[in-house]
């Protein structure tokens, strides 16, 4: 996939070299984020983390630890959310996010995001939010009716604030997040209408070339369902998870032909086994019959143990010095805030909030006034 009818999707192609990578040669501004509701897992790794590590040297990347967004459906678990902020930062560092080239920022420490959200809420209707397919799916998953937290219902708007606060043009996300990109671009266009000129750039989603990874039970991998392998899993946890993976329920005897489609073990081999040819041979053998689940699982276990061992080791090293990891977060947050303040000045101007500069107005901090005047 390269474009949708609205032209907002790009697919990351690992086979494409530096020169013609489908993210393009132009240096772009990237913004992504994760909710700190638990440790990050293999689904995050194939869906976006792996891509971010690769993209960070060619683009200007900011990663947001979206703790405010996490609270929108976890207000009762606020202490967990806070604790997981550090865990997520450790996950980033462990997989190779380099804080000298990537800003890692904490959403709740950037009040400009809250102000942008409040302003953008004026550009979005309840009807439009109700049509957002991701929100609809999540409402169903969580069994919300009229009791949906208003913050949760409007989180796409807050996510638009995240994306636009750094003037991002590229957003690496899973396909479930595509409606958020659409919603963001609608807000950007409404803002341009309001101002009579472009204020912020539109953005594109960058989808991973690897299809979504199922959880070990074949359902959507999720922290809350406990069916995902976390990046910090121990060797025993990895072994147990692979053993428990759903395969083909009709593949009863080794000699039976088996199905590869919808088979969780093969989905993981497709995502992680570096030997593509060998995986294709295994698939052919499995389909024909004569290849047992245990043999395939043993191979997958080796692949995952090999891949996760260095990540776990690096994570342990960073975890030994949480002060250093938090300093990384603090610096990334400060840099991101500087940019967000200039965006807020521009958006405030579109709403005429800077027309009369009084010291208590939102656009009144020195940096914002200077920025507004320089336009
Ligand atoms: N909604 C994203 C998720 O649940 C997390 C997120 C928050 C995000 N802000 C973002 C993703 C901005 C991309 C851009 O995974």
- The CATH topology label of the largest domain is Rossmann fold
The gyration radius over C-alpha positions equals 22 Å
Biggest sheet architecture: 3 strands, parallel
What average pLDDT do the residues reach? Answer: 90
Proportion of β residues?
5-15%
Separate helix tally? 15
What's the number of domains?
2
List the helices and strands and how they pair.
Blueprint: E1 9-11, E2 29-34, H1 42-55, E3 60-65, H2 67-71, H3 78-95, E4 102-106, H4 111-120, H5 126-131, H6 133-142, H7 150-153, H8 155-164, E5 170-172, H9 178-195, E6 204-207, H10 235-244, H11 264-272, H12 276-288, H13 293-319, H14 322-350, H15 366-373
Parallel strand pairs: 1-6, 2-3, 3-4, 5-6
Helix pairs in contact: 3-13, 3-14, 4-8, 4-14, 8-9, 10-13, 11-13, 14-15
The structure holds tryptophan.
Tryptophan binds at residues 31-35, 64, 66, 69, 159, 162-163, 171, 173, 177.
Q: How would you describe the overall organization of this protein?
A:
- The chain has 375 residues and is mostly helical.
- It has two domains: 2-213 and 323-350, Rossmann fold (3-Layer(aba) Sandwich), CATH 3.40.50; 235-319, Tyrosyl-Transfer RNA Synthetase (Orthogonal Bundle).
- It has 15 helices and six strands.
- The chain has a three-stranded parallel sheet with strand order 1-6-5.
- α3 (78-95) crosses α13 (293-319), α10 runs antiparallel to α13 and α14 (322-350) crosses α15.
- Bound molecules: tryptophan.
- Tryptophan (TRP) binds next to β2 and α8.
């Amino acid at each position: 996939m390269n474009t949708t009818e609205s032209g907002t999707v790009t697919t990351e192609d690992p086979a494409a070299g530096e020169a013609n990578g489908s993210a393009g040669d132009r240096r772009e501004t990237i913004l992504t984020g994760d909710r700190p509701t638990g440790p990050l897992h293999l689904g995050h790794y194939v869906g976006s983390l792996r891509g971010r590590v690769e993209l960070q040297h060619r683009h200007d990347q900011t990663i947001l630890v979206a703790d405010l967004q996490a609270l929108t459906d976890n207000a009762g678990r606020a202490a967990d959310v806070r604790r997981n902020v550090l865990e997520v930062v450790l996950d980033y560092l462990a997989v190779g996010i380099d804080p000298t080239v990537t800003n890692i920022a904490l959403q709740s420490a950037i009040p400009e995001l809250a102000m942008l959200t409040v302003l953008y809420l004026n550009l979005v209707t309840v009807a439009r939010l109700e049509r957002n397919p991701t929100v609809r799916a999540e409402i169903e998953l969580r069994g919300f009716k009229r009791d949906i937290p208003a913050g949760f219902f409007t989180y796409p708007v807050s996510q638009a604030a995240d994306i636009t606060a750094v003037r991002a043009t590229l957003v690496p996300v899973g396909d479930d997040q595509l409606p958020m990109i659409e919603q963001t671009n609608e807000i950007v266009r409404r803002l341009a209408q309001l101002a009579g000129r472009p204020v912020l750039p539109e953005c594109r989603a960058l989808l991973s070339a690897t299809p979504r990874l199922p959880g070990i039970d074949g359902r959507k991998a999720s922290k809350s369902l406990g069916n995902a392998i976390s990046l910090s899993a121990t060797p025993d946890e990895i072994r147990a998870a692979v053993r428990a993976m759903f395969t083909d329920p009709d593949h009863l005897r080794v000699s039976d032909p088996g199905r590869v489609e919808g088979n969780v073990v093969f989905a993981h081999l497709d995502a992680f086994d570096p030997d593509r040819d060998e995986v294709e041979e295994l698939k052919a053998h499995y389909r024909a019959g004569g290849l047992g689940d245990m043999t395939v699982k043993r191979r997958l276990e080796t692949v995952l143990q090999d891949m996760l061992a260095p990540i776990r080791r690096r994570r342990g090293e960073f975890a030994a010095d949480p002060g250093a990891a938090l300093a990384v977060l603090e610096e990334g947050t400060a840099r991101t805030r500087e940019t967000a303040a200039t965006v807020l000045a521009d958006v405030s101007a579109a709403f005429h909030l800077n027309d009369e500069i009084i010291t208590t107005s939102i656009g009144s901090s020195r940096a914002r006034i200077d920025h507004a005047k320089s336009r």
